[in-house]
Amino acid sequence: xNVSRRTxxxxxxxxxxxxxxxxxxxxxxxRGEGEVIYWLWDSAQLPMYAECAKVFQQQxxxxxxxxxxxxxxxxxxxxxxxxxxxxxxxxxxxHSAKYPLFADKGQVLALDDFVARDxxxxxxxxxxxxxxxxxxDGKRYGLPKDFDTEVYFYNSALTDxxxxxxxxxxxMTWNPKDxxxxxxxxxxxxxxxxxxxxDQPGFDKNNVKVYGLGYGDAGGADGxxxxxxxxxxxxxxxxxxxxxxxxxFYDDPKFIETISWWxxxxxxxxxxxxxxxxxxxxxxxxFGAGKYAITANGSWMLATYAxxxxxxxxxxxxxxxxxxxxxxxxxxxxxxxxxxxxxxxxAWAWVKFLGSKTAQDIVAKAGVVFPAVTASxxxxxxxxxxxxxxxxxxxxxxxxxxxxxxxxNPNAADVTAVMVPAMDSVMSFEKEPSSLAEANDDVNQILAxxx
Length: 451
Hints:
Layout: H1 3-23, E1 35-40, H2 46-59, E2 64-69, H3 72-85, E3 91-95, H4 99-104, H5 112-117, E4 143-148, E5 150-155, H6 156-161, H7 166-170, H8 180-189, E6 191-192, E7 208-214, H9 228-233, E8 239-240, E9 247-248, H10 253-268, H11 274-277, H12 283-288, E10 292-298, H13 302-306, E11 313-316, E12 328-337, H14 344-354, H15 357-366, E13 370-371, H16 377-386, H17 392-400, E14 403-405, H18 412-427, H19 436-450
Parallel strand pairs: 1-2, 1-3, 7-10, 12-14
Antiparallel strand pairs: 3-12, 4-12, 4-13, 5-10, 5-11, 6-7, 8-9
Helix pairs in contact: 1-3, 1-18, 2-15, 15-16, 18-19
């Protein structure tokens, strides 16, 4: 990406945010003074938050909550439009990749004074979660609502047929040279059209019926559900000043060799080509059709995998790497308040309630996501167990502290605009992994220009 393109992207975002500030006209002021408009994007969570609203209104009869749900892409587009027109929701669910820009441009309200006034206990949340919502300016912009990590979802019928045990899956090791026992298992699970496995003589890598490992995309700037843990257990980190990246390291040899190994699975026939992965059929649908034996994904996808009735899905740990341990990205969502809301007290009351054990117990019992409040986790674990899930692989890295944060910075959109095509080019074999050094230079120029 050349400098003029970077400047254009940066200018577009800055102009958009500036317009949002200038264009605010309190168009939402016609709402009832005690009515809070609340937005979320996950339809699976709508019922449990409707229940939260019911309890909240019973406890706070002076307030009411109107919940609106939009799909992921529409959600963010409508939110930015709301900033510009002055009709944004009073409270909305925020993602750690999105809120830094909103905070930087004054679109979300700092909660520090409210937290101090009401003596909100931030120690009730899983370790590190509350700190994820402290911006680069040192102010707090949200209260945690849930958290997530990653594991392998595997088709147990396929692992059984390959003679691979649960114990072997949960004891996998990995390294960037030969892939360790993880690659051995992936090879064993790969089957060509004539029934030959990836570790057997005559395996035809150009005519594969079942891939040992499936994936959904090239991972872009974060690789959350594709390559993040391999790089982490190889001793790599995203940036200096994690999670608030001030200098990124996509040029680190540890990262480049990790991506080289990962791409190598395509060359060996153990993983589909990038064109196949991006064909329009998503990774879970392909997994459900029996085309992938293993896929990596986040805890927020449990309900989706549970809906794949044609396969029996189980969970396995991520592998142990050269650093001597397993690691997973730990991310989470929070509820934030629009800076220009005319109902600050009502909005804060709702945010504080959503961050409480009372609300998160409701969330936990729904068995959809993992609640941020530590004391609510037993109820969540029981709910998932009732649905047939042993979620231990998701929780182990959290309990051991072997987690790393989703990379964050106010220029995340610009960084993504560089890294998505860069990673796409590598995984489609248009460029070599070494080209990521050039992409890293572009990323760091963006950060330098913004500082």
